[in-house]
Amino acid sequence: MKAVMKQTLRLLELLGHEEAPFGVHYSDAKPEGFGPREGELFTRERERTGQINWANAFGNNFSCLVGNIWLARKKKKAAWISHEACGCMGGGFYSGMYAPYLETNILYVSTGIPGTPFEGEHYLPSPESMRAFMEDIAPPLAPKKYCVIKPLDQFTEADPPLVVTFFARPEVINGLCSLVFYATGDHHAVASPFSAGCGSLIAWPLTYWRRGEKRAVLGGFDISARRFLKTDELTFAVPFPLYEHMLAVMEESALTRGTWANTRKKVFKSRRAWGDESVS
Fold first, then answer.
1. Which residues pair with residue 55 across a beta bridge?
2. Which of 57, 80, 114, 145 makes the best surface tag, with the fewest CB within 10 Å?
3. CA-based Rg of the chain, rounded to a whole angstrom?
4. What is the rounded CA–CA span in Å between residue 267 and residue 8?
5. What is the DSSP annotation of 39-85?
6. Phi-psi category of 112—alpha, beta or left, where left has phi over 0 and alpha has psi -120 to 50?
7. Closest by alpha carbon to 14, among 271, 278, 261, 274?
8. Residue 142: its pLDDT value, please?
9. Dihedral-angle region of residue 156 (phi above 0 means left; psi in -120 to 50 means alpha; beta otherwise)
10. Is-contact 197 222, C-beta < 8 A?
């Protein structure tokens, strides 16, 4: 990972971006960092037999994975989730901690649950549209106990990340998009499908890669998770093999040409305007 980190520092220099990316992987060792407490176990069988305490699931035991990633960004530590300590039925599904998805999630994200306090998020217009999305995103099941999101420089050659994620505002995203298009030669190489915040960071990049599609995923559009991102900030997640290729071709790309040098000035204007040289 030393070579990847050296190249990543060069990429950050070209982009004019200060915050280094995070990586996603799976581990059987519980990391030091931020995660949910043990609580409800989300399974279709427990849902069917009424064993899930939904008051707890939506109450004191609720913990948003994107919120824990926000804390990890501040402290340069890890965020994590497991099946036993899940915190969110959506986060657990999108990180591959359980399958199949829960019918409660289908209703909650769409039209709501009749006869309960959960009026629904109304992010999709019907349970059918939500079910189609869940079957399409189809996250691969976790190969190990914990899904871990941590700073890229904390990975090793023996245990590299599966996905690399940037947190940035549109001027920097502009440069990343340009580099992905150049690296792939594919004008569809950046996708922005509907998703929860954590789904854009984990599930969609892995699902695209598993399908043989070289896609970067532009995210940050989950209304529920916006509070855990800076104002105007988006996410940009790339499968690690594609990220390595981006690094390999960045010196030949538009990022080293005069047009980007002029555009890059807006990155610094944005940083000055927001007064946030680092996450705080």
1. none
2. 114
3. 19
4. 17
5. -----HHHHHTT---HHHHTTTT---HHHHHHHHHHHT-EEEEESSS
6. left
7. 261
8. 97
9. beta
10. yes
pLDDT score for 113? 83
Q: Which helix (H) or strand (E) holds 190?
A: strand 190-191
Q: What is the pLDDT of residues 269-280, one digit of tens each?
A: 999 998 876 543
> What is the CB neighbour count within 10 angstroms for residue 273?
11
User: How much of the chain, in percent, has pLDDT values that exceed 90?
Assistant: 92
> By CB neighbour count within 10 A (0-12 exposed, 13-18 middle, 19+ buried), where does 120 fall?
middle
Which pLDDT score is estimated for 85?
96
* Calpha distance 106→158 (Å, rounded): 38
The CB density around residue 212, as the number of other CB atoms within 10 Å, is: 6
Interval 175-194 mean pLDDT: 98
CA distances from 221 to 164, 201, 204 (A): 18, 12, 14
Q: Which of 203, 192, 168, 220 lies closest to 81 in space, CA to CA? A: 203
Convert the pLDDT of each residue in 85-115 to its tens digit: 999 999 999 999 999 999 999 999 999 987 7
Strand-pairing partners, residue 196, are none
